[in-house]
Design goal:
Layout lengths: L1 E8 L2 H15 L4 E4 L16 H9 L2 E6 L5 H10 L4 E7 L15 E7 L9 E3 H7 L18 E3 L5 H20 L5 E6 L7 H14 L5 E6 H10 L6 E4 L1 H15 L6 E5 L5 E5 L16 H13 L3 H17 L13 H13 L2
Parallel strand pairs: 1-2, 1-3, 3-12, 5-10, 8-9, 8-10
Antiparallel strand pairs: 4-5, 4-11, 6-7, 11-12
Helix pairs in contact: 1-11, 5-6, 7-8, 9-10, 10-11
The structure holds adenosine-5'-triphosphate.
Adenosine-5'-triphosphate (ATP) binds next to loops.
Length: about 350
């Protein structure tokens, strides 16, 4: 029996986590799912995640998170930053029947790897006047000081060799695992190292050096603006794509969209010692929250990643196959995929397909 802590977040997170947990329970998977409290007091003021929830989430085999919104930023901050879930895995795969905006999406099957702990996030910002005082000699590439700027704000981007090496190895190991399943065995790194010649270049060259140790893999690098274009124009040429925090955050939304939309984009976030949490890429979607029409696919696919992670590979494969069946049948799809089904109806259809295998 594996223990799962489910934290729905808010908005559609509540509906999709509910549907996914009901599905996994009704399918008879060997899981003990608990839902400890997300906050001690009502309201939207920032409060820490309750201590008992932190204990349960640390001890669980995995955590399933729904979607963050204004009153649950405490949950996602704890999961991502305090637990240092530095390795983000965001698959973007097209299943026939999905509503991709591309004319020919067949064969899209890539994984974006997002470095979650460094780069531009979590925000380190301030007043330009303070930066000017602290670093009077700071110059841009044209040799200009901060004197030319008036009032304004700055943000700090951090890259470390250790952080870049760690995510590069993570990406390379995944590319190797995928190669064994028939994928090309390629790591594509995306930076802006032509402009940011210290920070992005450190990331670029560190990833390149690490991937070079894997003789069975190939490496390529694109500047991030070019990469964004390629994800749309040549998505089937991508295998494992790795990027710094903010770049990969943006690129993974593009990749998710070309596969079938935000409603179908899952993620896993890995920390040290095998700890991980899983969540849809989408947010709380206030425009459709409470209507019961959110697509549960992103969360169900996050559960596929979670089941693999906790060692339930057979259940993971069956769940993915069941979801693919529902898309191929196109009878129980939510409105974002061109159907009329509710979240619960789509969940029930996946359960039916799971049982019928
Ligand atoms: P937040 O501020 O919490 O991130 P948001 O509305 O700005 O919320 P998302 O929740 O990521 O951003 O979603 C953007 C839009 O995509 C939503 O408004 C919704 O219309 C659509 N969307 C997102 N997730 C789903 C889903 N699971 N099913 C259907 N539509 C979705």
């Amino acid at each position: 029996m594996k223990t799962i802590v489910a934290l729905p977040g808010e908005g559609i997170g509540i509906e999709v986590v509910d549907a996914a947990c009901e599905l996994m329970t009704a399918a008879g998977m060997p899981l003990k799912i608990t839902t400890p409290p997300q906050r001690e007091s009502a309201g939207t003021a920032p409060v820490p995640l309750p201590a008992e929830t932190q204990r349960a989430a640390r001890a669980a085999d995995a955590v399933l998170f729904g979607a963050a919104g204004p009153s649950t930023t405490n949950v996602v901050s704890w999961l991502r930053w305090e637990m240092e879930a530095w390795g983000g895995v965001r698959p973007a795969k097209f299943y026939p029947g999905m509503r991709s905006p591309l004319a020919d999406p067949a064969g899209i099957d890539m994984v974006l790897i997002r470095e979650n702990s460094e780069g531009m996030y979590p925000g380190r910002e301030g007043d330009i006047a303070d930066l000017r005082k602290a670093m009077p000699d700071l110059r841009d590439r044209l040799g200009r000081s901060l004197e030319k700027y008036g009032e304004g704000r700055f943000a700090v981007k951090l890259v470390t060799k250790l952080g870049a090496e760690r995510i590069a190895r993570f990406a390379a190991e995944l590319a190797r695992k995928r190669k064994a399943q028939g994928h090309p065995g390629k790591v594509t790194c995306c930076t802006k190292s032509n402009v940011l010649r210290q920070s992005d270049a450190l990331f670029h060259h560190t990833v390149e050096a690490v991937v070079a140790e894997y003789k069975d893999l190939t490496f390529e690098h694109f500047h991030v603006d070019d990469a964004a274009r390629r994800l749309i124009r040549f998505p089937t040429q991508m295998d494992v794509v790795v990027g710094m925090n903010q770049y990969a955050d943006i690129l993974s939304d593009i990749a998710g969209e070309v596969a079938g939309g935000l409603g179908v984009a899952p993620s896993g976030n890995h920390g040290d010692d095998g700890w991980a949490y899983f969540e849809s890429v989408h947010g709380s979607a206030p425009d459709i929250a409470g209507k019961g029409i959110a697509n549960p696919t992103a969360t169900i696919l996050s559960c596929v990643l979670m089941l693999e992670h906790v060692g339930l590979a057979t259940e993971a494969q069956r769940l993915e196959a069941a979801l693919a069946r529902v898309y191929a049948d196109a009878k129980a799809l939510t409105p974002d995929q061109g159907g009329t089904a509710t979240t619960k109806q789509m969940g029930a259809a996946v359960l039916g397909a799971y049982r019928n295998q």
